[in-house]
Amino acid sequence: MDEFDVEEFIRNYECLAPKRYSYANVKKMTDNFKDKIGKGGFGTVYKGRLPDGLVVAVKVLSETKGNAEDFINEVASIGRTSHVNIVTLSGFCYERRDKRALIYEFMHNGSLDNFIHKQGSETANCRLEWKTLSEIAVGIARGLEYLHRGCNTRILHLDIKPQNILLDKNFCPKIADFGLAKLCKTKESIVSMMGTRGTAGYIAPEVFSRNFGGVSHKSDVYSYGMLVLEMVGARKNLDSGVSHTSEMFPHYIYKDLELDNDENVFGAITEEEKEIARKMVLISLWCIQTNPSDRPSMSKVVEMLEGPLHSLQIAPKPFLFSPTIPAAQGSMTASQQSEIEDISGN
């Protein structure tokens, strides 16, 4: 996408786009890029302040191939949204390819990634309480439900991971970074997509191989399931510092669930904490089913999160992760098939 295309887009979607700032404005609001608060593959994030005093995070994009499309994706996607669990885009800057910035509301607690398995970091000992983790999981689910159903245009995020979930001062989660997002008509379920988008460990099977089905809102559901399992701590064997001699994820989770061995997987202490952890894991295992049609919608996920634990069954083992499991062990029961049809709406 060249400079002319970007300018044409901005003119066509001016009513949807947030306020446009000059690069001189960006330098002024960041005090000449004085306070760097983060750095990623797409650029550097600085703390800034708008003329009205609002504290913001300013993401200055690096000049790399393909970033113009990512930039437009972000402006187009977030410009259409208004939800408590979606980060607010306060403005943007575009002056040629080398002077582009996105201006967001500032999130005091940074990303969720800071509170998950971060050994040696300042937040390593700031393990969130189970009630807070549950509220964050519900908030993310509501944000995704809104993207999939609440907008005039359905938005597929396609890069849900801890780094893209921001937390405000009250730990209310906000979905951020829409650089890889895809827009599609609400009635469409499958989107056309070239190549693979997303981050290893969170990408749905159908995103990297169409043999598993088409890319749809159910691809976000998969990523959400992997994210919540990481929040619970159930993905411990994906940590490079953990031995891989034991059973691989997610099979040890099923084993512990079946044995009611909650504390082994979750680290929960009280009965209330164990119930929260168990519910989060059970729902996540439904979300990471290999067949997209077997996964629940985000509306159903919200319903399950807010419903009673006793109504949830253990999902069948995803066959993508079961190459060595005998067919009989990996097959599902009639009750599980019935549960799939109920959860997925099929």
From TrEMBL:
SUPFAM superfamilies: Protein kinase-like (PK-like) (SSF56112). GO terms for cellular component: membrane. One of its GO terms (molecular function) is ATP binding. Residues 31-320 form the Protein kinase domain. Pfam families: Pkinase. The keyword Lipid biosynthesis does not apply. InterPro entries: Kinase-like_dom_sf (IPR011009), LRK10/LRL21-25-like (IPR045874), Prot_kinase_dom (IPR000719), Protein_kinase_ATP_BS (IPR017441), Ser/Thr_kinase_AS (IPR008271). It is a single-pass type I membrane protein. ATP binds at residue 59. The keyword Kinase applies. It is found in: Membrane. SMART domains: S_TKc. It catalyses: L-threonyl-[protein] + ATP = O-phospho-L-threonyl-[protein] + ADP + H(+); L-seryl-[protein] + ATP = O-phospho-L-seryl-[protein] + ADP + H(+). Its EC number is 2.7.11.1. It is an enzyme of class 2 (transferase). Keywords: ATP-binding, Disulfide bond, EGF-like domain, Glycoprotein, Kinase, Membrane, Nucleotide-binding, Receptor, Serine/threonine-protein kinase, Signal, Transferase, Transmembrane, Transmembrane helix. Belongs to the protein kinase superfamily. This is non-specific serine/threonine protein kinase.
